[in-house]
Amino acid sequence: MTSARPFGRALCAMVTPFTPDGALDLDEAAKLAARLVGEGCDGLVLNGTTGESPTTTDAEKAALVRAVRAAVGPGPSVLTGVGTADTRHTAELARQAEQAGADGLLVVTPYYSRPPQPAVEAHFRRVADATGLPVMVYDIPGRTGTRVEPATMRRLAEHPRIVAVKDCSYDLLSSARLIAETGLAYYSGSEETNLPLYAVGGAGYVSTVANVAPRQLRAVLDAFDAGDTAAATRLNARLLPLAERMMAAGLPGTVTVKALLGGPVREPLQPADRETADGLRELYEALIRPDQAESVV
User: Fold this and answer.
1) What residues are paired with 211 via a beta bridge?
2) E strand intervals along 36-103
3) Per-residue pLDDT tens for 54-79?
4) Which of 63, 132, 187, 279 gets the highest tally of CB atoms within 10 A of its CB?
């Protein structure tokens, strides 16, 4: 991968499959990972928000990395979330991830305690110093309660292993400036910003919707890279209703993905009700299935 796109362009924030009795299902995880890579994902991000990381154990997280690494081989990027509210625990998870074969770390801002910016910076530096793996900073203040402020991000960009950002800040102006000023690879973490962020120099996306529409999401970037911005706009617009239903209609993305793919979630999450699941499937079929044979560029 190039330095501008250290993990590729099209990354999926992969769900974590569980068996009906709630155990980690490594066989299904391997199958899902192989399918996603086969359908256009450059990389997979495991053990994140969509991967239900708050409800999986440290051992399960490492086992998932090992299983996916074995399933997809050495080519695609395999990142794993190691974020916790505890810096020491996060650093230990980072070391375990490195040993399990991860290519990079997704590190979220410490949550609940809402540390001030100097402490946020110190947290990321401590974790980045814990291994030799590159770090993707996960900036999602809507969940953590604390943003990585632009000035902090500029300082973090000076660290040799802090190379990327999963951007859920909803501040396109700041993101565009930081892309231009720092050299950090900015990945959209919100489907509605995939194309706008890419157009101002973003590296790509880390997408929950890619669990069910990997080729269609990648096609937007392919069209843009081919210079056909009209096609990119059209393809992006076709995906927005599905993205809105999956990500902004009151249910977590994990729940809506599993409503389409099947499989249980872990409590405190609850599965989608029948009406919601049926509505999602109907929308998915209408928007995605007719697109299977379409040449996009």
Assistant:
1) none
2) 43-46, 77-81
3) 999 999 999 999 999 999 999 999 99
4) 187
